[in-house]
């Protein structure tokens, strides 16, 4: 019944439409349009956009006071006054006029004052002068650069190497050459500052995993896999990278490379490995963490290291397969847009490589020394050794923090000064506290060097003595902060 | 149709940013709003004279690309692109042999490391003329240089060294402005001495234990050279920019950057997290408008006023050969209370009667520039970079610069090279050698630029800039010019897209005090004789 009635109403309506006078229809049409307008127009009128007058603008400009370019620095900022080293920074070092045994620089193989390295650099200086006066592209490629790249590739047993003129710029340029906006990078929390800057420059999505925690990494990778399944089209163009360090600068620990390689193939993410500390240190021939774990270098997509530690020169390099490395020759910003490495530094690095190849025994010596000093430093009251026993750079950390970073830093500085008074040069590991993603606790960093004498090593023993209970007790005991020996 | 010397260029429209008068600056810095001098016939110079601002004529010209040339250039790129697609197609179906390295088998199912189009340009355009770059040399990069001969049997995919050395190639490519790239003389001797004493490396950072007495000496010298309170030196010029700008500005700050700024400045600005706005190259109206708007309207969305505004400019722009309009920039910066970061990578040593860079060139006070940045790579024949300025600034950088905390410090022999060459420029070595070099470079610049102009080449930039870009426009000419010049024993730098706008490919000459008049004459003579071979004149007579 109802439907019939409705139909009748509809018919009547249509009929009424036919019969209605024209003015009526026009009026209703206008009304409908009016309603539409009311529906779509804004309900309120925007405040009249009164543009500022010239005078007002000038007043605003007059009023504006910028912050100072740099905030003032207090005179006693711990990093303001640098230690001044006179003379060469080798095994024995003169810091602020005081002769010390050097436990602070990264001259692991003692090649800094090696006469052969110096002679090679000198010969190069006499042939090429100092500077290159141009980037690699524009007459800044010297034959020594090509030699060095060749030698590094051969040394690392890989296809190609590329050198940068600054260690820091190496990984910081390499990461953004591959990883772009939208790509995903899995990175260890403890990654060094250069990696952090490279990641920032790449503008990729960054996923931090807990330091050396493979379970955490796998969790993140799994999460990503789930995400990818939801959106397979996006996943097809999203590159995944895992960025790790061989030996971590910030912790002195070694990365679990075998597990990482397994994860790499399981989740199809490429591995970038920063080896600044491990190159020329780990492995039978000093090839770094890949050799240490016996992993084929082809399984790692990119290895970067600087030549400023073991090789005791300046600059850095990346190596790997040509398919990967060659891309940096046009896309590595620090490579393309910077003057090339002074040839004398390249020549020094070549000679250092020669020495490393000729005496593979030095790596064993270094390893033994590292282990010995690690042992010697155990059991100092209030201080704990952080890092692997085979790491030539490791940290001493307060067992009990005073609670404030500032106080800790001060305390550690006192310990450093105390050692310095006893002719042992150590250094606090410096960080830019505001810039670091995950700030490591304050520590002292100790660089062990092969140059320190063998057989117990007076340097090693002295370090132990000064820091240990046998020597003058460090001030920390007096402040009563560190009581028990570990 | 070859034009007579100096003729025919005056009718050509000149690109606005090069020479149009500057807008009025109110605070009385500019009295006469710059009058574009009606250039006499035969001159393309438009002279900007800004009352008290400029103490010397500021002649800078960028000719607009002629329409015909522009069209032909685009057609050229079009043809190259078509062929590129064709050959990619052939490679895809394995009809043409694939030369480039490929992904290893085990990782074929990974997400591709490169996007396909990303390498299209490299594969199909760059590869054809790759032999013009990365030419390996095996001598001092002085006025003449020895180049290792190389051959390619697979169209530049790989190079083989023949073992021959092309000796005595005239070097118009290196940034050896003052001729300090030498393997003899006082600099080399001093560097050798330091090398034997210190070794080459440092193995630590400045803040830890890598601060040598040599570094302290260098920084004091740099400060006195620049006429600023203090200075700090860094191991790499590129990193000086990219690692220090983030220490100066951050979130809530505004960076105003010239559109043609170097990659290192761009990277530094990006890393800082500040908002970046770009003004037209050397265009003061554009800069002033941005400054005004920034202060009046504040930050977008939050509408808070900006914390601070930093202007990033370079002294000499290395691809354009232009000199920054520093007097106007300083006037604007003062008026709007912005800070000025001046990158003197190419201008330090190369400009000014005393070689103190662009500040010296305009006779200004270094105090007016907040951050004086420069490199040691070019004029000093070494490597590294510096920042100079007020003591507070340097103290702040000493504690907060990324470079001081995390990067290895400068190599001692390199430091010594800088110290010796800088002392030489300052006349502290008891000779007038430095002054002579500066004068020689200025003369060479004037002479070479004048000769090229007379011969009818289109060159860009300021008449006092030792960087001389010569316009080639078309992609095919990039390769042709570079190769033909090398055949005639002249090494030049050629650049195309993406380093330049797509239709403005160019060759670049960098003058040096080490160039003698004979060398420059040889170059200009050869160019005059062979210009038709590569047709660099770009149909000049046709208009």
UniProtKB/TrEMBL annotation, chain A:
Belongs to the class-II pyridoxal-phosphate-dependent aminotransferase family. Keywords: Acyltransferase, Lipid metabolism, Membrane, Pyridoxal phosphate, Sphingolipid metabolism, Transferase, Transmembrane, Transmembrane helix. Signal peptide: none annotated. SUPFAM superfamilies: PLP-dependent transferases. It comes from the Eukaryota. Its EC number is 2.3.1.50. This is Serine palmitoyltransferase 1. Its cofactor is pyridoxal 5'-phosphate. The lineage of its organism: Eukaryota, Metazoa, Chordata, Craniata, Vertebrata. It comes from Neomonachus schauinslandi. One of its GO terms (biological process) is sphingosine biosynthetic process. The keyword Transcription does not apply. It catalyses: octadecanoyl-CoA + L-serine + H(+) = 3-oxoeicosasphinganine + CO2 + CoA; L-serine + hexadecanoyl-CoA + H(+) = 3-oxosphinganine + CO2 + CoA; dodecanoyl-CoA + L-serine + H(+) = 3-oxotetradecasphinganine + CO2 + CoA; tetradecanoyl-CoA + L-serine + H(+) = 3-oxohexadecasphinganine + CO2 + CoA. The gene is SPTLC1. Component of the serine palmitoyltransferase multisubunit enzyme (SPT) that catalyzes the initial and rate-limiting step in sphingolipid biosynthesis by condensing L-serine and activated acyl-CoA (most commonly palmitoyl-CoA) to form long-chain bases. The SPT complex is also composed of SPTLC2 or SPTLC3 and SPTSSA or SPTSSB. Within this complex, the heterodimer with SPTLC2 or SPTLC3 forms the catalytic core. The composition of the serine palmitoyltransferase (SPT) complex determines the substrate preference.
Automatic annotation (TrEMBL), chain B:
The keyword Lipid metabolism applies. Residues 168-522 form the Aminotransferase class I/classII large domain. Keywords: Acyltransferase, Endoplasmic reticulum, Lipid metabolism, Membrane, Pyridoxal phosphate, Sphingolipid metabolism, Transferase, Transmembrane, Transmembrane helix. It comes from the Eukaryota. One of its GO terms (molecular function) is pyridoxal phosphate binding. It is an enzyme of class 2 (transferase). Its cofactor is pyridoxal 5'-phosphate. GO terms for cellular component: endoplasmic reticulum membrane; serine palmitoyltransferase complex. Belongs to the class-II pyridoxal-phosphate-dependent aminotransferase family. This is serine C-palmitoyltransferase. The lineage of its organism: Eukaryota, Metazoa, Chordata, Craniata, Vertebrata.
